[in-house]
Amino acid sequence: xxxxxLWILFPLLVSGAFLFIMNRKRVLKWAGxxxxxxxxVLALRMPINQVFNFLFWELRISDEMLIFGRRFILSDADxxxxxxxxxxxxxxxxxxxxxxxxIQIVPLGLAGTVLILTAYAVEPIFYGALFFAFLALIYxxxxxxxxxxxxxxxxxxxxxxxxxxxxxxxxxxxxxxxxLNTGDQLLLVRSLVILALGFAFxxxxxxxxxxxxxxxxxxxxxxxxxxxxxxxxxxxLFGLRFISDPGWFGxxxxxxxxLQYAGIIMLGFGGAVALISKHLxxxxxxxxxxxxxxxxxxxxxxxxxxxxxFALVIVQSLxxxxxxxxxxxxxxxxxxxxxxxxxxxxxQWPITSSGLLVGYFTLAGLPLFAGxxxxxxxxxxxxxxxxxxxxxxxxxxxxxxxxxxxxxAALTRNSGEENVLIVSSSFYRSLILAINFILILLGLFPQxxxxxxxNISNLMMGS
Amino acid sequence: MSGLFQSLSVAVLFxxxxxxxxxxxxxxxxxxxxLQYVGVLGLVSISWPVEIAVVKLVAGWMASAVLFLTxxxxxxxxDDTPYELSLxxxxxxxxxxxxxxxxxxxxxxxxLRWFLGATSQQTLGGLLLLGLGxxxxxxxxxxxxxxxxxxxxxSGFEILYATLEASVLMTGLLAILNIGIAFxxxxxxxxxxxxxxx
Lengths: 463, 198
Known about the structure:
The complex is a heterodimer. Chain A is mainly alpha-helical. Chain A has helices spanning 3-18, 25-45, 79-95, 105-121, 128-143, 152-176, 185-202, 211-218, 221-244, 256-276, 280-300, 306-330, 339-342, 345-348, 350-364, 371-382, 387-412, 426-444, 446-461; strands at 51-54, 57-60, 64-67, 70-73, 122-123. In chain A, a hairpin with a 2-residue loop joins strand 1 and strand 2. By secondary structure, chain B is mostly helical. Chain B contains 8 helices and no strands. Chain B has helices at 2-22, 26-47, 50-73, 76-79, 87-111, 120-139, 143-161, 168-191. In chain B, helix 1 packs antiparallel against helix 5 (87-111). The longest helix of chain B has 25 residues, at 87-111. Chain A binds chain B through residues 22-23, 25, 67-70, 102-103, 127, 130, 133-134, 137, 140-141, 144-150, 152, 155, 158-159, 162-163, 166, 169-170, 173-174, 176-177, 190, and chain B through 114, 116, 137, 141, 143, 146, 150, 153-154, 157, 160-161, 164-165, 167-170, 172-174, 176-177, 180-181, 183-184, 187-188, 191-192, 194-197.
């Protein structure tokens, strides 16, 4: 037995089996939650490449699987990534309300997570791009539930992901022609530019950004939150493999500045979208775009930025989760998510709306919420870099905060509506309050978050 | 003889990719797509043994069959194309296709410096499919046309990629990707007609 069989093939089979119980929504939700949690615990505790006793048997789980001459490796250093992804699945499946969310998120979400791990595990690295194309296909189905017309945003997502995959394969092809001894610099630069273009498609970096606001505006908020959270995290980790691989970026290649350019553009763009949008879905897109920018900035700091990146991941997941679960409940009573339709929601459904506000302000970087200490640390680490980096960082953050105030004003505006319908059951109201509490707690005691993030980073870097 | 065969394959590819852009009828569209894969086989077989190159043809035909069978089974209301191509649109598309053809032809000598190891016919055929596939994707709003555009684009890439990579796993994965994209096209075509879960 080996780790890819355990964390790739087995969950893939389970997600296939889940397709047969799609009509048992509640059972499926809990089955998905428990399975993901068990896989996460297994990833945390299972000895790899060591002999251990299990009941009557003596077992040894190797970290490598061979298929048609290509290796799939999930080693001890990859353990944090496996745990992180299965915990993400556990979190999203746990908070989903089967009454308001299409239940195919459980089998397709689990299969998607497995494909991300496959892309992360495969050697040579560039084969991973193909698995992201498969993931995009699965997420297109997830974002287009039966009975609904596929939205233009979903089609654009599909196009950009396929193009991105092809550019990465092409870059790898060009790079393979470089003679390692003579080191043809022109060919190397060409292949790196094409690789960057591929990742720009995959990560929706400006100008390939349009699918994020389109999907956030028209598609189901919970499905959108899940897809954006897991897909973008997967692509980032896939990109980190290229950065940490010595074969791609040698000593002479400076990728810090391009990463900072891209990060600042994304953060500034997110801030600008938040300033002018009048739609809750687009506000979600604004914070997601900004988070891509912040993550790029964190990655641009390399070793000192990796702990910040993982702290950002945890905060993003919690905040996007509470935002998505709140919005999917409000979806039942709002005809759409523009500010006029959402007027007065905080008066009628204060607890559900609180999830929107806490989730948004956490990602906008309001003091006392979990995002603030991380963004502060990121800003401090960026201090030695040029003025334009710091000024755009501040502009993006201010844009997001103003957008948050506009959202707050819209949700608390007196709409004259006095009928109050119950939109969430007591379980989901408690859940929203609990996540809000955690986000505030992590803001007050950021050392918990930074400690976890530092551990993940250390384990991954093998120090 | 080999050069003539390669040039014929390129001609088939151009005519098919341009034809897909211009026709309205879905039967013609899927039929031409299937024919296009014969041209792909012709150019891929220069770099690979025919018995492996035929995987491209089989995968392409399966993708075409999936799209064809979906159209046959689609509810009647969906069969009426909502974006019927008018005569000026057909002229415009035809003109754009010819422009792309000419541009790609003039670019081949420069492109050969990028696509090391490929013959000029392979480069021309691959780039033609890339260009016309991209044109199809850019000009369409219908899911099915976008899917066919993506399949065309990927075919172009596969011709060029075959000159470097002959890995069994990569060949298999690209074949699965082609069929997967066709299934997604079929699903998108049917999604709005499927029963919403209660």
